[in-house]
Write a structure and sequence with these properties.
Layout lengths: L13 H5 L2 E6 L2 E6 L8 H7 L7 E5 L2 E3 L14 E6 L5
Parallel strand pairs: 1-5
Antiparallel strand pairs: 1-2, 3-4, 3-5
């Protein structure tokens, strides 16, 4: 009897996707984050983890600007490169 195996998804095995951690390049620095309750991580959730106000940042994901209105629905994948610019008032 042959053993059936599942093919990798996006170059990652199913088990590697189940561990809940995600590796991102954040402003040029490689960092590992845990998703909420081990689930997927959105830009909005990442900004919450980083304690950044979504109204005071601009986010670029893989060299594309992400509109603020899409932070909650933009899911991050291991290997994504993010640039986050935090605006600080003054004058």
């Amino acid at each position: 009897m042959a053993t059936a195996t599942l093919p990798p998804a996006n170059g990652r095995t199913i088990l590697s996707r189940m561990n809940g951690s995600i590796t991102l390049t954040l402003n040029g620095e490689s960092r590992v984050f845990e998703g909420p309750a081990g689930g997927p991580l959105s830009i909005a959730a990442l900004l919450t983890i980083l304690e950044l106000d979504t109204k005071k940042v601009a986010v670029e994901r893989n060299e594309e600007i992400v509109p603020r209105s899409r932070y909650a629905e933009t899911w991050l994948n291991s290997g994504d490169a993010l640039e986050i610019v935090h605006f600080i008032g003054g004058g």
